[in-house]
Amino acid sequence: MNKLQADPLIDSDYISRSEQRVTGRAARPRDSATLILVRTDGKIPRVLMGKRSQNHVFMPNKFVFPGGKVEIADGRLRVPNQLHPAVLRRLMKGCSETKARALALAAIRETFEETGMILGKSSPTVIKSRSDSWVKFLRHGMTPNLENLYYVARAITPPYRNRRFDARFFMAYVDQKSLHDASAEASGELLEIHWVTLSRARTLELPHITRVMLDEIERRVSHDDSYHQEGPFVYAKHGRFVNGKQ
Q1: Where are the beta strands (DSSP E) in 111-201?
Q2: Reported pTM
């Protein structure tokens, strides 16, 4: 396995004191999911990113892809389309089948909440949910589209941070026809939301893991992508990041 450069522990330009665990045992990572939307209807691929406000305790002022914690409602939602079998198999190396689907649905829901972008398709099937977020999503007459999701990476927040996540990163190729824009409904959690080229994205203030994701996206965009392709599994071991595969 290849080792990545260690995340600086005392670098105040990267990690604020409010993000550091000072005492006690390491927090247990919470399941979360991120969706990387890759726009392919232009000459150069672009990705959707936004800036976390300075009021966020976790990674303030950093540009990120939309995403967040898995909610109970994500595991209860029943949709008529399924993840690609290869994607489901790879996800299940680290969780159950139910949680695998919940992770994918969480990525789609969080993207809608934070950006107003709906990765879905029209469906005559009536889907019900008691979740406010899913009710807002479903009233657009769209069903979450799991079929076109790629599973590209997994990353676990290092134990020296006071908030930790076991994050799965998904990717979807989109264009104007496959993406429904309801950006007026965005929560405001992300600021300066816009489509950027990969080269432009690298000039922004980014978490280390986001730079790893940009490299992975570029690799997939530049070559024939496959649902079967393994991706990075980044975690901390003995004070250093390790880049495995999953």
Answers
A1: 117-122, 142-144, 150-156, 165-174, 179-181, 190-197
A2: 0.87
